[in-house]
Design a protein that fits this description.
By secondary structure, the chain is mainly alpha-helical. It has 9 helices and 2 strands; from the N terminus they run H-H-H-E-E-H-H-H-H-H-H. The chain has a two-stranded antiparallel sheet with strand order 1-2. The longest helix is centred in the middle third of the chain and has 34 residues.
Amino acid sequence: MAQTLVRAPLVRAPLVRAPLVDQAIAMLREQISGGEWPVGAKLPAEPVLAQQMGVGRSTIREAVRVLSHAGILEVHQGSGTFVRSATTPDDFATRLHRAKALEVYEVRRGLEVEAAALAAVRRTDDDLAAIDQALAERNAAAADRRSPEFLAGDINFHKAVVDAAHNPLLSALYASSIAAIRRALEDVLADASVKRNPHALHEELARAIRRQDQRAAVASVRRHLDGTYEALARLVRS
């Protein structure tokens, strides 16, 4: 007697290997562009999406946040998450890079504003030497702002300011964020639409810390980071 072949139901495999948030973003984007959720449609609840994709709710939450920044989704508190736009793949890729950079700059502002305020009070001669050296390296490579030397000099400058705050926890938090900061900076420098901050703001910050002018140091960091953040925000939401 011939056996009847029973076809197993098709089940989406859990996301593996690549960063889970990136995979969740890609899958949500695919479902939106494929018409599973057209513009105006409401997405399933967070627990349902998490179960479908085989990831935690925090991964879904982060993916939705990035897609919201990119203008693809729109979250209405108490009502749910809705599809706002289905952009072309090229447009989406640009928006996604900007949205991710935007989130990094939100974190940078919190860390670096506090660091500048503390550094202006606590800096030592060794701290000033480290800040000056990193600034010189950044200046020397400023002709090509996408070069590895410029990126390293810029990151080392900001790290030297954070370290001058002499708060071990703040330094540890910043060090753990450097990889994300570098990726965001690469995206910003490669994006011709993003207005870059004047080179003079770094010099201004170094001088403010040297003369222990806390207010000026904080103002310099805010102008530097807020300018890029606001430019990114306008482009993401345009």
